[in-house]
Amino acid sequence: MGGVLLGLGLGWGALVAGLGVGLGLLDRRPLLAALALLGAGLGCGSERLQSGQPDRLAPWVGAQVTLTGDWDGQFLTLRDPPARLALSPRPPQPPGRLEVSGRLVRPEGRTLPGGFDQAAWLRAQGGVFLPTPRTVLVGARVRSSRPEGGVRGWFRRGLAAGLSARNAALMMAVELGDRGDIGRENFAEGYAVRDAFNRAGLAHLMALSGQNVALLTGALIFLLSRLGAPTWLRYGLPLALLVPYLTVLVSVSPSITRAVVMGMAVLAGLWAGRGRPDVPGTLALAALVCLLLFPLWLLDVGFQLSFLAVLALTLSSRLAARLPAGWPHTLRLALAATVLAELGTLPVIASTFGQLPLVGLPANLLAEGVMAALVPLGFLAGLLGPLAAPVNLLVAPLASLLLWLAEVFGRAPVLGWGQVGIGGLAAYVLAALAGTLWLLGRVRGRAALGTVLACALLSWLPGTLRPARELVFLDVGQGDATLLRLPGLTMLVDAGGSVGSDYDVGGRRVLPALRALGVRKLDVAVATHADTDHIEGLAAVLRGLPVGELWIGQRKADDPVLAAVLAAARERGVPVREVRRGDEVEAAGVKVTVLWPQGAPWSDEDNANSVALRVTDGGWHAALLGDLPDPVEGRIGVGPLDLLKTAHHGSRFSTDATFLAQTHPKDALISVGARNTYGHPNAAVLERLAAAGVRVWRTDLQGTVRWPLP
Fold it and tell me: Whole-angstrom Cα distance, residue 566 to residue 298?
């Protein structure tokens, strides 16, 4: 681990490597210290090997291309030149041979709090012997496709034989780790199946892991034992099948690779008559193998979750022993394992997803029973291929039951959580150490409980004693989303949208950003006007967070996007207020005033009906103008400004010289997409701002901009 970090240029990796060497010397084992030093060198070398791979597609970045390759549901693999790349949007076609056209671009980094860092994730998907994806084909359009053949094609046909589309999609995820199809399934409008699994704490069931390996090898060992197979065959056959299972049938990922390596070590020990290997040592072996082959998995969330969960599970027997002795031993172990796995992964889950499931314990206890039968039966169906329909008669009700559990438990409340900083991580480590020492009998229960409560209090106090006072201009691509955070008032103005696409900006970008910022509810959500790139995402926000009130300007009767937002408000019981010039709300000494619209008669142009707001904090003023065109913005009386959020993404139809002379802003914020075809921001607007001495901030260049209020 220290060597990988050093290879990435992180100096504190030397501390990690030094810790390994120091522990060896402290234990008076110089050979172990030397091996730790060797490991650091190997880790650094492995990272350098991967980073030094040539970028085969570099000459074509920015160009329109047509490519033919093997599609595995996640990446397109080319043979000439040998390269892998991501496709956006992800094609609905199943894995197989694809001919696809689009434009090659570099992946984006993280531009939102809690947002997806596509560039870092893609770098982590490569390995020493596996090409690293370095490009994305945007606007991907499939010209021709041929379904996958071979073992995987046969297996996929078995998983789908006789099943409904949703059940088949679930089985692809459970047995092959392919979540492409299940990601397109919804229980209801705005309620995605994958979101339900996440909220219920069941997302790990759709990621191949030790559970799959344990259930499949366990079922095979049980069958061989009943047939009277000798020891060498009973353990040797499952051991021999694990490698082709990983390399031929399923896709390589941190959790399944870790599980296969650990499974092979356990089976080898049983085959040799040496008993079960030491769990921490086996876990370390798996980490060593993973990081030597895929060094950047160290920074992958899946790697972190997988290893933290197993590390926590090593204490299961000790926690089970502290539960009431009258309870069945199996129940005590299941309870202990579920609780420890959730606690062990808590900081990663909270920081990555911005929320913690509150029903994970009962949901997992019920779901694990279903999985115990579903995984072996599904695997058998896959082996039978097109002949699997009779087996799938048993699979179908189990898959439906698992989906029902996810749907029901997914409707339960979740605990919102912001990003975990270094202080929060330190508090968690101290609390986890106290709990571990209690389980090991090293400290008393009262001392451990007191430490945990003190750490929780210290984590809670900073945000309570010093609440946020800021404007946050979220990077939602080509669109608008602005968050005002004050003690006593949290207001979201617009939530972005995706014109001509089914990509859910509200659910995939805005909601995660709000959760990462620690926003658990909105007092006011504002839909400025009926443009997709401004308000489409509000429907997902209204369904995903408690909202006190929805403000709109013109209630346009024939607009489908606004109708969808209003429908979401009705569904969640959110009152809708049609605001007019002069309406205002005040909190913590900050006043938000509606400058526009004034009501009927309405303009035929939606932009001219935008809700415009002025934010006043003492002598400091900001204006949020929606998409107002220049004739209107100049006559609504904005007044002198410190901060102007330019109207209409820097369009040439707004922010004229007369308006700038009226307002004299010191800074201007332009919310604009890096890949837009509208020519935003307009060069003339940028020249006018520069001539007026205004500093310009752009979400396409700076990403999300957080502006503290005085």
Answer: 44
